[in-house]
């Protein structure tokens, strides 16, 4: 079967390069020939050993602290909004054309203040208020939120690279699955070899900002810095600069979209949410499993006979990755295609560099089994999510690691 393509969308996305900012980024990594140093953290399957911090070999990844924001702090920290490279970028943008949309506010728990906002009229296409994915503004990139091909599961994982992801990535490799992995810049700087693994295994890498904030609560300068330094970090560790990003918590409006568009970035949101980030005990893990069960059933009952889905899941903790490992075999059995975003939208160039994505759907595949293997409204509590993220990315997060091990053991019973 020759697959129908979303050619107009693909062409528009590929032509989205409106700035050469990414050409100033440096890297020593050749994405076509990635060699990851052999250290315990890159080879072990023990989360406690994987998550011991290391200093990368400067001949492979040269990280100079003074050139980066503080990890897990907004990207304007450490004076990064005053550097020559950032000021040049900021001043190259015509801010008079930016949408006149106010900076939002949120309380200490990460709950957005929507008082006075008309979510029915939704003038700002504010996803957090309305689930809007179609910008009411010209000259901004439209969100991706589904796969055009019927009965397709858009395979995406947020919040990587996680230090303890070796077993998960091994599983994806065993199943010959290529996911879209949305990497956080702070995680990339903390765990650069783990980011290299993502590109070595052939996954599509996307941007998930520098510090995982509610983006609509940041000023224009802060939003720009979150994009810029995350992109710079991903380039450093993978040799590639993504054209696609995912807003943390889905929090995006036309102001944030406009800034992203200035950098040639297109948002990828979702239309199914596993809520796996909330799996912190037996009860919440069971609730997430029920979500997976319902989504797997949708692949069998015709829900996605007209077009496919993009599913939100996370590389956040050992529990979220264990849930993915447990459910992917059933997902593969229930959906015709289990594939990344670049493939499901037939996007040939998901990076700014001249690096062609060859795993596209516009070809005839006679062996259906081979094809399956090779092409294969939520409100998040920001504070709780960030606490989980921090625990999952340090050796001190032993409770999360233990919970993940217990969850894995439960699934194997």
Descriptive account of the structure:
There is one protein chain. α8 packs across α9 (220-238), α9 (220-238) crosses α10 (254-262) and α11 (282-298) packs parallel to α12. The chain is 37% helix and 8% strand. It has 16 helices and 8 strands.
Q: Can you tag this structure with a few keywords?
A:
8% strand; disordered N terminus; two-stranded parallel sheet; 413 residues; 16 helices; alpha/beta; single chain; disordered C terminus; globular; 37% helix; 6-stranded parallel sheet
How much helix, percentage-wise, in residues?
25-40%
Q: Give the termini distance in whole angstroms.
A: 39 Å
Beta-strand content: 5-15%
State the low-pLDDT regions, or none: 1-18, 362-413
Number of helices: 16
Structural class: alpha/beta
What does the largest sheet look like? 6 strands, parallel
Number of strands: 8
Arithmetic mean pLDDT: 87
Give the H and E element order. Answer: HHHHHEHEHHEHEHEEHEHEHHHH
- What's the gyration radius in Å? 20 Å
Backbone shape: globular
In short:
By secondary structure, this protein is an alpha/beta fold. The protein contains 16 helices and 8 strands. Helices cover 37% and strands 8% of the residues.
């Amino acid at each position: 079967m020759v697959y129908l393509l979303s050619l107009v969308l693909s062409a528009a996305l590929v032509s989205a390069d409106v700035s050469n900012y990414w050409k100033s980024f440096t890297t020593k990594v050749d994405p076509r020939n990635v060699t990851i140093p052999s250290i315990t953290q890159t080879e072990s399957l023990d989360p406690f050993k994987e998550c011991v911090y290391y200093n990368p070999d400067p001949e492979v990844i040269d990280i100079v602290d003074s050139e980066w924001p503080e990890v897990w702090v907004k990207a304007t920290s450490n004076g990064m909004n005053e550097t020559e490279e950032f000021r040049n970028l900021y001043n190259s943008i015509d801010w008079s054309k930016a949408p006149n949309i106010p900076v939002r506010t949120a309380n200490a728990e990460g709950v957005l203040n929507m008082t006075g906002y008309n979510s029915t009229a939704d003038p700002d296409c504010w996803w957090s208020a309305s689930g809007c994915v179609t910008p009411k503004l010209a000259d901004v990139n439209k969100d991706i939120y589904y796969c055009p091909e019927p009965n397709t599961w858009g395979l995406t994982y947020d919040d990587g690279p996680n230090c303890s992801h070796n077993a998960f990535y091994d599983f994806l490799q065993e199943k010959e699955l290529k996911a879209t992995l949305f990497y956080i810049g702070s995680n990339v700087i903390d765990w650069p070899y783990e980011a290299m693994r993502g590109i070595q295994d052939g996954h599509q890498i996307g941007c998930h900002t520098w510090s995982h904030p509610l983006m609509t609560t940041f000023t224009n300068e802060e939003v720009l810095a979150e994009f810029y330094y995350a992109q710079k970090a991903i380039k450093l560790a993978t040799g590639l600069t993504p054209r696609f990003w995912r807003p943390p918590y889905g929090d995006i409006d036309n102001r944030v979209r406009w800034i992203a568009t200035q950098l040639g970035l297109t948002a990828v949101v979702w239309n199914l949410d596993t809520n796996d980030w909330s799996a912190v005990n037996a009860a919440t893990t069971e609730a997430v499993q029920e979500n997976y069960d319902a989504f797997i059933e949708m692949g069998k009952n015709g829900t996605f006979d007209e077009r496919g889905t993009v599913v939100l899941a996370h590389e956040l903790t050992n529990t979220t990755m264990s849930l993915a490992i447990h459910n992917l075999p059933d997902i593969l059995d229930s959906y015709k295609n289990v594939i990344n975003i670049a493939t499901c939208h037939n996007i040939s160039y998901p990076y700014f560099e001249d690096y062609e994505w060859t795993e596209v759907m516009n070809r005839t595949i006679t062996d259906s089994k081979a094809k399956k293997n090779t092409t294969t409204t939520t409100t998040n509590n920001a504070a709780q999510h960030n606490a989980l993220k921090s625990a999952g990315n340090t050796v001190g997060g032993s409770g999360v690691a233990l919970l993940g091990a217990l969850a894995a053991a439960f699934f194997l019973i």
